[in-house]
Amino acid sequence: MRVEFDRDVCIGMFQCVAEWDAFEEDTDAGKAVLRDSEEVEDGVFAREVPEDAELDAKFAARSCPVDAIAVYDEDGEQVV
Question: Which residue in 15, 76, 24 sits closest to 48, CA to CA?
Answer without folding.
Answer: 76
